[in-house]
Amino acid sequence: MSTPHPIPSGTGRALPAVPAARTGGLAALREATREQHARLDAALPLAREGATLQDYVRHARALAAWLQALGPVISPIDAGPHPWRLDDPGRLQALRLDLEDAAAAAWPAAGVETEEAAARVLERFPARAAAVAWGMAYVVEGSQLGGQWLHRRLSATLAPHPLRYLQGSGAGTAARWKHFLARLADALQAPEDIAAACAGAQTAFDALRRQYDVQEETPA
Q1: Domains of the chain, start order
Q2: Distance of alpha carbon 51 from alpha carbon 174, whole angstroms
Q3: Could you report the per-residue pLDDT of 61-85, keeping only the tens digit for each?
């Protein structure tokens, strides 16, 4: 028997099923972030009808600030017993080029709100930093799949802008997600780790929503 799981951020669309025996941590993450996911989807300007290039600029700036802040927190899992490496340089470069093509405002710094939120959740789980990082990585990696759905929806409307970030790595994005879930299942076995990961994922969702709010207050 298998259990479907949604893309953690951006679309709410279902993905291919994974074996039920491997979904303990994943199921907990999905349930812990269900309401946040729904709220983010409902509030995402880029997912609405009539989305504009200015909407994408704000989307890209929010993601850039968010990823820069979360990158150092997630990096410990690069060298852990179940390593996973985020593609931050590639993703940030795609966002940088997208903003340049859109003649957007200056490159955003790491989101202070996100940094502070990450610090608070790590203080709650001082011995579970890696598990917190896995929860945050769940949201970051899932957002790439949501981005591909947005790319298919917006590529013609916002042409000739290439929307590099939303493209991700094409067909390789789904394979990367599958591989990520296998590493996550290995890493999140103990109930304490699953609880810390859920807190990390909730923090990442809240922080992303806040970065969108910041960009709504900032001229594109």
Answers
A1: 23-39+51-216 (1.20.910.10)
A2: 25
A3: 999 999 999 999 998 787 777 878 8
